[in-house]
Predict the structure of Beta-carotene oxygenase 1, like.
Amino acid sequence: DMQSIFGKNGSETPEPVKAQVKGSIPSWLQGTLLRNGPGLFSVGSSEYNHWFDGMSLIHSFTFSEGEVTYRSKFLKSDTYKRNIKADRIIVTEFGTMVYPDPCKNIFARAFTHLCNIIPDFTDNNLINIIRYGQDYYASSEINYINQIDPVTLETVGRINYRNHIALNLATAHPHYDSEGNTYNMGTAIMGFGWPKYVIFKVPADASDKEHKRPALRKVQQVCSIPFRSTLFPSYFHSFGMTENYIIFVEQPLKLDIVKLATAYFRGVNWGSCLKFDKDDITLFHVINRNTGKKVSTRFYADALVVFHHINAYETATCTTMFYIQNMKQETDSFIDSNKKFSPPVCQRFVLPLSIHKESPRGTNLVTLTDTTAQAVVQEDGSVYCQPDALFEGLELPGINYNFNAKKYRYFYGSRVKWSPHSNKIAKIDIVTREHIEWQQENCYPSEPVFVASPGAVEEDDGVILSSIISPDPNISPFMLVLNAKNFEEIARASIPASVHMDLHGHFISAAI
């Protein structure tokens, strides 16, 4: 049934509408959940090929005095404006390569071809909401971000990372420390000296709304890491952060720079420029976030692909399935044709930082009693790491962010196996290795978001928020509120408007 709404154009609800609440929303739950995801898949008679190409639709769910209001607006990016004005898709996206209008004169077409020698990426920021200082931005994995007003959802204006720091690409999954500083990572590929990965920080006090100056003007580079292979940088979607370190996983899912630079002329999309090298290894870079210096030990593991980091802490001692044509298949057909893909597995690695020259070779240095992960010193002094598999069949993981960079026990996520359509959300207990789930027939939840109760001490004292959609016309979209301890439903707020499936989001407390 889900196939009937995947790839279908969403619609705006520009003015707030009041949801009908069943149950009781906690009085302390005050704030706005901003969500982002693809919402427009065709313009005129032209259609996108990939779900990650759809133009951004921003949603807001505002909680106040036990009530919920909803609104949504398309991100008014330059890409959106150009496509709408032309009444067709004219900007290339991840899985859809676009060529000049054949009705253009030869000079205009020649100019367009010339501009595509080095790709200028779309600014269709459809993945997440990022906070820099006190400014909020729609983001994706490109050099552009678009500032939005978190109350009205109006698009304030576009920012180019390259005007503030030497980056071609940046992640949409930053980290925030307890002081409100934002840490993020990017890639410098072309035009910025030797290619490298860059870790940067934006201070909490970077905003200057009075003079309308962007928070990125105060950006600080923490460090840079050279590519292992100059023409094949690792793709990365997120990274880990502990109290003192940044952990970057340089994986063998790689971006082919030559293929990217020539994609337009060879008639292939950007998505096809990613390649997984199953015979390569995975490297773990551990960088002191205070000094910018990298730990000298070489930690590595077998080839893997990682998208989302759940958490990282210190203690004493695939994208092919998301092409629209695939997502519209009947579920049984999709499963049969995608059995070659592995379901996502939540894995834990342990990287022993107290390695020294005398560390015994061939011995597992992991002494923690709550994990089966191993780290074995090799003859050359490098450390071969093998993970502890925590849970299979879960994506879009999240935690109580108050425990980010700290030892934690629980994480939450969307249950997925052979289909990209999540129909359950789950809570996993790392200690007991048990899990609980919520599901309702013919209902499809978004990424679960944890919001802690005021003054909470226990890690799972709070609620889980997830927007639910259904292809059943008798089931209105609703915001689900669960007790995070036992996953019992506290309330649901039925929304009298169209709500589209999204990707990631950010909860803004009303107290901030």
